[in-house]
Amino acid sequence: MSGVRGRSAALVPAAGAGTRLGRGPKAFVRLGAATLLEHSVAALHGAVDEVIVAVPRGYEAEASALVAGRAQVVTGAATRQATVLALLRATTAEVVLVHDAARPFLPRVVVERVLAAVATSGAATAALPVADTIVSTADGTTLPREDLRAVQTPQGFGRELLLTAHEAALAAGVEATDDAALVRRLGVRVSIVEGSTFLHKVTTADDLLLGLALLALWQGEEQTVL
Fold it and tell me: What is the pTM of this model?
């Protein structure tokens, strides 16, 4: 597939209930002096032409106050996939990045890598090599980790491509864990670019504790990639 250039938008699906963390909607959980949503928007602001976030119904005013002047707020849906589709319909940008608010420390260089890959190939995701040994619980087989990557966000696409992928999945009743999987379902190759160890995902209480440790490093190193 050919690359896509043009106006860019970062889409942040932040409408989850945060059930595993147990502190209410995850995007509004504080990590240091700011919420996960604020950290993520701050990392994206200025790197793209617009930032749009989707939050749970009833939280729009609170979110708008937190990200005033840096992002537009829309109402999310019941699932992440449906929320991303709503975000896609809220922008006319040619290039979109989808980034999880639960990954608050996003180095600018990773954004630049993903945008550059989209300009070349039309679809890309940040990812890191797998460092741990991976074993299949089905039969105990050790999987060759040199062929494996841990997928992160942001993921970037031409907007029309990702919209087509989401609408096709909706029509077929298909659910996927990330947007790149929906694009691959169309037979489109998704380029993989180097992510960052800073892109730690906050899902559980232990993740939040690790996030606090990363926050000190993130601020002290002035967002230098590990």
Answer: 0.93
Angle, helix 108-121 to helix 36-44, in steps of 10 degrees: 60
Tell me phi and psi for residue 31, to 5 degrees.
-125, 100
Domain that holds residue 81: 8-220
* 129-151 pLDDT per residue, tens: 998 899 988 888 898 888 899 99
Query: Residues 154-196: pLDDT tens digits?
Result: 999 999 999 999 999 999 999 998 999 999 999 999 999 999 9
CA distance 68 to 166: 29
Is residue 109 assigned to a domain?
yes
DSSP-derived letter for residue 198 is: T
CATH number at residue 60: 3.90.550.10
DSSP H or E run through 126: strand 123-129
Indicate whether 225 belongs to any domain. Answer: no
Cα 191 to the center of its chain, rounded Å: 16
